[in-house]
Amino acid sequence: MILLLAGTSDARAIGTELKNSHLKVIATATSNYGSQLLRENGLEVLCGKLDEGALHSVVQQYEISVIVDATHPYAEAISHLALNVAKELNILYLRYERPSILQELSMDKIVAVQDYLEAAKVASLEQGNVLSTIGSRRLEKLVMSIPLDRLFVRILPQPEVIKECLDLGIKLGQIIAMQGPFSKELNMALYKQFNIKTIITKDSGEIGGAKEKIEAAQACGVKTILVERPAIKYPKVFNEIYELLKYLQNMN
Prior knowledge:
This protein is 40% helix and 21% strand. It is of the alpha/beta class. The strands form two sheets. The protein has a six-stranded parallel sheet, with helices on both faces. It has a six-stranded parallel sheet with strand order 6-11-10-7-8-9, with helices on both faces. Helix 8 (184-193) crosses helix 9.
């Protein structure tokens, strides 16, 4: 049985292909929304956040022989956890990492930083409005340094996520609740509408809309603060879905 650590559109595509190849697979998701999308693709899903004990139990209960980690490039906690559990239980760990976009871009007006705290400090020194496109989970780190009257956030249109922003003191008029990815043109329109001078984003890959965000910023003369991907040493990494599928099919 393959355990697919999901939560991205890449993972849904991988899960569907595994199922169509008649490979036994069970997927995980941390949210009800993510679980729903996976189930719509015909996958069996375990919903909820996994800690070490829970992951151990899942591996043993479902007789998992392979963990396929297709989580977001910045979901480092679950990747570290899965690596450790795979090593402890002597099972195969495979990582699918969506390709970076950095080699496709000019680095004009891009400042690369190592983490969210550094991103917040750099943004706080800039003039004008700042737009965060990193989601809601790291916003607490941003509000520690960036004045609230200058911080705009683009988040998923989910009530609980909007509440998180309001609880941090971000005003409703500075919350852009939309589900992406977005075109370059729409990004440009949003930057102009809210008079954005700096954006904070991640290298979430082309499928995550990062390229369009950054190219739009460059076209508008907006500075980009780019949080680099976590540096994790994976034992075996695939950057193409078909290569991962071929590897798994050849194992059977």
